[in-house]
Amino acid sequence: MLRLPPFRYHRPATVAQAIEVMGEHAGDAMFVAGGTDLIPNMKHRLFEPGHLVALKGIEELRGVRIDDGHLRIGAAETISHVASNPEVLNRFPALADAAGHIAGPQLRNSGTIGGNLCLDTRCTYYNQTAFWREALGYCLKKDGDVCHVIRVGKKCVAAHSADTPPVLMTLDAVATLVGPDGQRSVPVRDFFVADGIVNSRRAPDEIVTELRIPLASAERKQAYAKLRVRKSIDFPLLTVAIAADLDGDGTVRSIEGVVTALGSRPHVLTGWGDVAVGRRLDDQVVDELAERAHKQCHPLENMIVDHEWRRAMVPVYVRRALEKLGAA
User: What pLDDT is stored for residue 163 in this prediction?
Assistant: First the structure.
């Protein structure tokens, strides 16, 4: 049985109190919401904070509402609520689709949308028990000095494995963060950095309080597709999110594709506008976009499934997402 390390649990009533508690235990505390990722990682001794500061019970982090031209989603809203919320379903179906494909029902009922945005990167050499990692000599991300994937250099290549951020990027979503220095807004497309150890711009003492999606983004055609070992529970081996602006006759005005689970941050597929703008999404255009995506995606051996097979699945799932978008 894997046991949790000892810690003290704090339940602040407000965001301000949560930040205050975090400041009192700086360097030895972590925020926790649903805990679906953090708690297993603590059992594996990937994190051993002496204090956990709970966020899920803070009322100001809840709610899904329309305000000032945006759909505002509180960061502590559960994944299942986001997936089933009528406003999300009607305006941003790709986001509801992505949320509905996260893990299984029990985990979606506990995990939060803010937690999914801040999900830790994953690697087959990292997400293991302490005993397993010790036998290997640990890895660059935790306790070691070498990356077992690339075997050279000092760069961690653990993969970003969250489902909703690629969709949020295509919808121009913005995250609100609050910390000791006040509040700031960060577009989700700028939230991540190319570092497998710490892959976001959120400071350890900052809280993601809400996500804002412009209502204008609801005019875009949207689609999401996910590759994983099983139809439930598993983290993605690949996700594809696409959004496009189409004229009445189906001519593409703009189009964007984002993939993830291939590197330490979501990857925006480049050059899609050069291929598709001014044309309809017929079979030829879909094939050209899928081929361009294939050329840009190069998975590493950081997951249990063969990386060449995962690369071969990129054009397959890009086509599926584009076909879903065309039928929307």
Answer: 97
